[in-house]
Specification:
mainly beta; Rieske Iron-sulfur Protein; 3-stranded antiparallel sheet; globular; Rieske_2Fe-2S; Rieske_2Fe-2S_sf; Nitrite reductase small subunit NirD; 2Fe-2S
């Protein structure tokens, strides 16, 4: 069993209301931007902002359910795992995300 993440590893990135419903917000960083997505049910997910297919910006994709469709070639990426949906194969790096008191936090460690 994995130990829980140390709270010092969590970084506040925005308020949940700063992310449009069925949309995203980009967290810029040198190691690659992170797309933070909000579903219709206010679940929040974070993926590296690069489709595993041709590195398309997932943050510009269409969110439906708990999936984002890449704007370049319509690959469907599962927001909870980062895995491409069949028949496509590949994975976008996932970052742990949580909402506390209306604020979004990412674990970047």
């Amino acid at each position: 069993m994995n130990a829980p993440l140390n709270t010092e590893q969590w970084l506040r990135v925005c308020a949940v209301t700063d992310i449009p419903v069925l949309g995203s917000r980009v967290v810029e960083r040198d190691a690659g931007n992170i797309a933070v997505f909000r579903t219709a049910t206010d679940n929040v997910f974070a993926l590296l902002d690069r489709c595993p297919h041709k590195a398309g910006p997932l943050s510009q994709g269409i969110v439906h359910g708990e999936t984002v469709t890449c704007p370049l070639h319509s690959w469907n990426i599962d927001l909870s795992s980062g895995e491409a949906r069949a028949p496509d194969v590949g994975c976008a790096r996932r970052f742990p995300a949580k909402v506390e008191n209306g604020d979004v936090y990412l674990a970047l460690g």
